[in-house]
């Protein structure tokens, strides 16, 4: 979440343990189940965000 916020993404909603971040036309859903995300999920989120 810190990386998304640092790159201009804004948290627009949260349903249960999933937060939705948006910037321009890109949307990224962040699961908030544990402290650290597995590398595969983190990599997928970076691709979705274009980072």
From TrEMBL:
**What SUPFAM superfamilies does the entry give?**
YcfA/nrd intein domain (SSF54786)
Originating organism: Liquorilactobacillus ghanensis DSM 18630
Specify the superkingdom. Answer: Bacteria
Keywords, ordered alphabetically:
Endonuclease, Hydrolase, Nuclease, RNA-binding, Stress response, Toxin-antitoxin system
A GO molecular-function descriptor: hydrolase activity
Name assigned to this protein: Uncharacterized protein
Per the record, the similarity remark reads:
Belongs to the HicA mRNA interferase family.
Does the record carry Nuclease as a key word? yes
């Amino acid at each position: 979440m810190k990386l998304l916020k640092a790159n201009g993404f804004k948290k627009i909603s949260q349903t249960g343990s999933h937060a939705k971040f948006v910037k321009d036309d890109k949307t990224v859903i962040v699961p908030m189940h544990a402290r650290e995300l597995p590398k595969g999920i983190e990599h997928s989120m970076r691709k979705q965000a274009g980072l």
